[in-house]
Design goal:
single chain, mainly alpha, elongated
């Protein structure tokens, strides 16, 4: 296996860890949202964690395709992830702000994966990261618009 594939696998495992923490944070927010925006955000958080769940599987399968081993222990995710856990007492706008911060972390890691995959000539991984970046940018734009001060 090319050394550059090893670097891509490493960056993908960090991305996998990021998505696991992001997924769990979205579940936390889905379960703990209260207030006047409950119905709106409860549904949005579910939509986002269902999407994250699919991405987790796709990332792990991409690592396997590259003949690597996907991280599969939560203790590893906590060590590798750029995303941190959140408490359950945040208000609606604070939750959305947390998600936007997580999107920045995910986008940063996606760009590192992209650079590694580009160096390796790994078009399959580039296809995945390009799609994820576009989707995250759009969702971030929408959440940012929702989170604007009134």
């Amino acid at each position: 296996m090319k050394k550059t594939n090893q670097e891509t696998i490493k960056t993908l495992n960090i991305l996998l860890s990021d998505y696991h923490l992001y997924y769990q944070k979205l579940r936390n927010f889905h379960w703990n949202i209260t207030g006047p925006h409950f119905f709106e955000l409860h549904s949005k958080f579910e939509e986002l964690y269902e999407d994250a769940k699919l991405k987790i599987d796709e990332i792990a399968e991409r690592i396997l395709t590259l003949r690597g081993n996907p991280e599969s222990n939560f203790s590893s995710y906590l060590k590798l992830s750029n995303i941190k856990e959140a408490n359950t007492t945040l208000k609606d706008h604070e939750m959305v702000s947390e998600i936007l911060e997580d999107h920045n972390a995910l986008l940063h890691q996606l760009k590192l994966v992209t650079a590694s995959a580009d160096e390796a000539g790994d078009d399959g991984t580039l296809d995945i990261t390009g799609t994820y970046i576009g989707e995250l940018e759009k969702v971030s734009w929408m959440l940012n618009a929702w989170n604007q001060k009134k």
